[in-house]
Every structure is written in C-alpha cells, then in structure tokens.
Known about the structure:
The protein is of the alpha/beta class. The chain has helices spanning about 10-30, 35-50, 55-60, 175-180, 215-225, 260-275, 305-320, 325-330, 385-395, 415-420, 445-460; strands at about 50-55, 70-75, 80-85, 95-100, 105-115, 120-125, 140-145, 150-155, 165-170, 195-200, 235-240, 245-250, 255-260, 285-290, 335, 340, 365, 370, 400, 410-415, 425-430, 435, 440-445. It has 11 helices and 23 strands. A 9-stranded mixed sheet has the order 1-2-3-14-4-15-21-17-19, sandwiched between helices. Strand 5 and strand 6 form a beta hairpin. The two termini are about 25 Å apart.
Amino acid sequence: xxxxxxxxxxxxxxxxxxEDISRAYCHFLDCSKTERxxxxxxxxxxxxxxxxxxxxxIETGGTLKxxxxxxxxxxxxxxxxxxxxAEPFEKGMNILGAxxxxxxxxxxxxxxxxxxxxxxxDTHYYGGxxxxxxxALPLAIHGIIVRKDGTKAEIKLGEKERDPAFVITDxxxxxGKEQNEQKVKDFINAEKxxxxxxxxxxxxxxxxxxxxxxxxxxxxxxxxxxxxxxxDFISAExxxxxxxxxxDCGLDRSMILGYGQDDRSCAFTSLLALLEVKMTxxxxxxxLVDKEEIGSVGATGMHSKFFENTVAELLELYGGYSALKLRxxxxxxxxxxxxxxxxxxxMFAEYYEKKNSAYLGNGLVFNKYSGSGGKSGANDAxxxxxxxxxxxxxxxxxxxxxxxxxxxDKGGGGTIAYIMANYGMNVIDCGIPVLNMHAPWEVSxxxxxxxxxxxxxxxxxxx
Length: 463
C-alpha cells in the first residue's frame, strides 16, 4: 500500500483550514484537561449549535423528529449527542465514540501531610503511565471539592501565569547511583509520587516544636480561597495534570504538543464532525466516555448502561420504545471507535513493524484489530466493513493509512471497540497517530487532525 503524506495534497486555502482547525483544537485541549472539563466544553459547543438537553425534553413532555439535535450527560463526565436522521432508528445509527479520560495523577481522599517542614498531597496514579515521566515537571491541579452540604468548589490552579505550580520531586543525580540501576517500573515507588504544596510555617505559631505548622498554613489558605476544610477532601475529585498550554511543535509548526491527546484528539474531531454535519440519512451520534484508561468500568465508562439507556429514551420520544426496537437499533449501527494509534518512532524502531505502522502526517489511521499476544482482547472488524469504509474515504478524498499497535509480541492495547461490538454492530478503531502516547506531553500532526475531521464527517454522511 502506497503511503501518502497529507501535506502534499493541500492547497493554500486548505492549509489555512488546517491551521484554523489546529488552533481550535489547542483551545479545546487547554479547556478540557479533565473529564468534567471536556464534557462541559462539548456541551457548550453543542448548545451553541442548537443541541437540546434530553432531560429537558423529557420533563416538558416533548417528542423527537428527524433533524432534531439532542444531548444527554451522565454524572458530568460522559456525554452522548445525537442528530436524528431521516430513517427510523431501527435502521441503525452511525456512531463516533471516543474516550475523554487520560493518564494522570489523582489526589487521595486523605491527602495532606507534613514531613520535615514540607507539606505534600498523597497521590495515586491513574491509567498506564511511566511514573518517572511525571517527576520534576510543573503540574496543575484540576477538579472539584464537594462540601458536606453539597456545594462545590471548582479548582483549577497552576495554569495561569501568576498561579503557583506544583511538582513531584526527583532525586538529584549526585545521589542517584543506586536509582540509576533500577528497572523503569521500580525507578520510583508510587507511594513517593506525592505533590509538594507548601513550605511556609504558620505566622501564628511561634513555638518551633508545634507540630505541623506548615500544614496549618496550607489548610488556612484552602479555607480562605475555597472555603474547604481537610475533611472535604473525602468528597473530592482532584486530578494532577501537566501545567501549560498546548502549542505548535517543530520549526515548521507542523505538529502539536499537548497533554491528553489520547484521546481528546479524537474526541474533538468526532464532536466537531457531528456539529458540522447537516441532516443525514441515518441518525448520527457522538459519544464521549470516561474510564477507558482503566478498563471502561464504572457508571461513566463504556461498560455502563448509560448509552443503551439513552437510546431507549430516544426511541420512546421518537415513537415508542420496545426492547426489539432497541436491539435492532444497536445491531444495525456502524461505529468508529475513535481512538489514537501509536505513531512510528524511528528512535525506537525495533518496537514497530514498518509496513503496518502509522506515521505522522499520513492521515487517518484504521486499526482493523487491536489486542495483544495473539490479538487477545481484540475487536477484529469484518473485511466487508473495512471495504465499505475504504470506499467512503476514497470518495471524500480522505488521506488514510492502516496500522497495528506495535510489532507482534511487543505490546498491544485495547479501546472501547470490543464493548460496542457486543451488540453485533460493525465497529473498527479509527483515529490519529500520536508520539509519546501516555506521556505528560504527546505529539500529533496537524494534518492528521484535519484528515480525522474529514474522515469522521464522511463516515457520518455515508457509512
């Protein structure tokens, strides 16, 4: 298969379009560093394009008809958006599904402690991370603290120029001889990946023997700025993420460096595709879910019944729910599991197989199968479905490539594809290639972002 560099096919006007999309994408990344922030950003964009809250339609006794635009949000961390098509639901939907959680560091529920004059927040990492990559970086805290009375304090600290930043400390190289002999997984004990948050003793404490005088300063600041106490951390969701904005990467500015591109690159392009598509034959859908990085579990992961329940509600408002209609709708649907692929990295060539790798700038990636060690845990798409998608992409002049996630027996991974395939629908993984996947800062190609948007639009229109 001949590979194509997407940049070679762009006119001057189209290159301007690529830059416009890239700027909007970087803004989306900056506003969406947590699942709650990403969901809120998606809803704001959707409402600006005429999407209505499903809960409001149900409460007011409304109904649905072709052309209507609806969204449903669950627990503030998962959202499904629909544009009702001309055909009945039972004919199936065209679904773009991405996850909006990313590897990170979480703050524990009893986090604050003082050790030898330094105050830390105790942490637990989330998802597949190389722990050493999170040391000695400027970090920010995002999330919410819910007080006992149900009121919330929203936290976003470390992003603005005048904000304090935070850090997980590392051992200096002068003392690191033994550390350098460790395996990567043992390089740092996860229980020592705690966030440094304070060093200033309380001004009211004159006795140097008074315990935890620095911790008192930190707790006082939290009370003054956010009206929260130490016990309120029990009901908090606080995430530690890299501090700083997404930005152009490379002398030629052809790439984007940013946090959370797995999988918010595909979430952004899937959402934008749905918002740009006009009335379609089949109902178009974009679902953005949480918890993929830890197995798609819980009430906001793809394994939950949220999506199925939402479709059932739509059927009821459209003309009457039945279990059979729901089953037909799900089985007859087509889906792109919009998730990123590993970009070929010449610095680590031995971990890839060149013919079947994804390359930056070579467009939208289709992964016919995923899994590891003999395709274990894979979704393996039908050849007929792959052929149909090739036809659609060619018609709309989408630059595309196919890939596996690394060389055989070198690794592998999974997505939400296999979960939706349980309904019997056609599903394939389809996203963009990313360098530094799961690192605090990931790299993507602006051209691939643009081709993903084109490809997702083509899929919604004609799959």
